[in-house]
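Subject: sequence -> structure tokens, single chain

Hey, anyone have a minute? Need the predicted structure for the following. Not urgent.
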Amino acid sequence: MKPNYTKTCTLPQNLIPLIRNRGLHIADEQKAIDYLTHIGYFRFSAYLYPLLKTPPREHCYKKGATFEMALNMYRFDRKLRILLFNEIEKIEVAIRSAMSKELSVN
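Reply:
Had a minute. Here:
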């Protein structure tokens, strides 16, 4: 049986008026559309969450909240993820080397 999804797809250019009406300032609409197209709204929405007023279920943004603020959080998270994965890769290689040495010696 096929699941019945109730939410429809909303294109990034149609999301801009919606989030603007909820109080988010967007200085460069085309830039916002480009980011939402390449990142995806559902991934990017995690960075919009801290900018929401309480209670967040009302989907209204705090005074002064901007798309650029969310974008800066996204960029920070991306840089941090790259740094962490670089270090994790070093640990992974060291563990594989140790395992290979241990298994091949015995």
